[in-house]
Amino acid sequence: MKDQVNRRGFIKKSSLAALTAALGTNIVFAKNLPEGFTPVLFDEKDALKGKSTELIVRGERPWNVESLPHLLDERITSVKNMFIRNNGLIPETIDVKNWKLTIDGESVKAPKTYTLEELKKRFKKHTYQLVVECGGNGRSGYQPSTSGNQWDQGAVHCAQWSGVRLKDILNDVGIKDDAVYIGYHSADLHLSRDPQKEAISRGVPIAKAMEDETLVAWELNGADIPEFHGMPLRLVVGGWPASTSGKWLERISIRNKVHDGAKMTGHSYRVPRNPVVPGTSIPETDEYYKIIESMPVKSNITFPKTGAIVEVGATTPIRGHAWAGDLKVAKMEISIDFGATWQPCKLEEPANRLAWQHWSTEVKLPQKGYYEVWARATDEHQVAQPMVIPAWNPGGYINNACERIAMKAE
Ligand SMILES: Nc1nc2c(c(=O)[nH]1)N[C@H]1C(S)=C(S)[C@@H](COP(=O)(O)O)O[C@H]1N2
Ligand SMILES: [Mo]
């Protein structure tokens, strides 16, 4: 890994000609550009570098890039198939050698700062596979549509993260009895580039922060965390909205109240306390909204790819993953008749708590024609995925309706 990545410095020191040559492109009217002008291309680094070419770009400023169910077929999601969700701009300088993590806040006995090297040396390293799903995954299903990225089914991954337990750090620092919540602070920039503003600063209740699986991680799938996923240090909170997994982590505040950082209020990552009529707007206050905590039960179908054409009566393997926030998935079923009948699937144990569970089965399509395969997971509390889109909410969060693929028998 490069110790220092400084985008701005690079642009300043190099000529436009050299830069465009390096990119293998050519700015046709470059000679007409004013001095010091930065082409849009160099505004931010290319989030798509090293990514599967099938990923869907939902936005470039900030970068929001979605994965697809068939790309998520791997048991452990590889970086090239991981979605990216940025609320701001990635840090201009990432000085890995001198990276520090500070623990502060009202409910810390005394603030303490660790270098990344100290974290690696002082605490035991742990590795977990963790489901990180954007609270807005599935948002495109809501009618009327809500603002925000129109994620379909691909804003989820289950990768392998390594680092130290947040609880080991907090026990070392010393936390007061009145601690209620943690809030992360990160090095990315607000879209306005105003240094006074944070792009996002969220957190979780202290009990979730103290769980074994809540990591301060520096490794993703056995390698350094890539730039767009939070290099060099990241909070990883499995099973909760991915917005709680702060990238480019610099500071964690131990709060004596619910954290009040950027995107903790309004309808950001919150849902109405009482169900609302679709399309309703309600006051964006705590009285009307509650923070999304554990994500609901959900599953995907990662093989075959939707649109598969098979022979009548042939045996086709079907598989995917299922997850249920803090809970385990207890049952997995599929239907090829629009939910009239369901057949049970083989469901594996998770690699560890908060990892997704692999499921598999086979289908035989009985006669020529069009079919849909629907998948339905049920959690250990006997709560199943709904077949239709669940409670509409102004932020378009937690759509856990059954996912489906199209198949044709010929
Ligand atoms: N510092 C920081 N952390 C962040 C974000 C961000 O914009 N800045 N986005 C959050 C949101 S909303 C999501 S869905 C996940 C996405 O993680 P990924 O890009 O590694 O897939 O990161 C979370 N952590
Ligand atoms: Mo998100």
UniProtKB/TrEMBL annotation:
Keyword set for this entry? Metal-binding, Molybdenum, Oxidoreductase, Signal
State the taxonomy lineage: Bacteria, Pseudomonadati, Bacteroidota, Cytophagia, Cytophagales
Q: Check the record and name the PROSITE patterns matching this protein.
A: TAT
What residues does the Moybdenum cofactor oxidoreductase dimerisation domain cover? 290-408
A Pfam short name: Oxidored_molyb
- Which cofactors, if any, are listed as required? Mo-molybdopterin
* Database matches in CDD domains: SO_family_Moco_dimer
Species name: Dyadobacter jejuensis
Q: Where in this chain does the entry annotate a coiled-coil region?
A: none
Q: Which domain of life is it from?
A: Bacteria
Oxidoreductase molybdopterin-binding domain residues are 90-261
The biological processes this protein is annotated with in GO are: sulfur compound metabolic process
GO MF terms, alphabetically ordered: heme binding; molybdenum ion binding; molybdopterin cofactor binding; sulfite oxidase activity
Please state what the protein is called.
Secreted protein
Signal peptide (from-to):
1-30
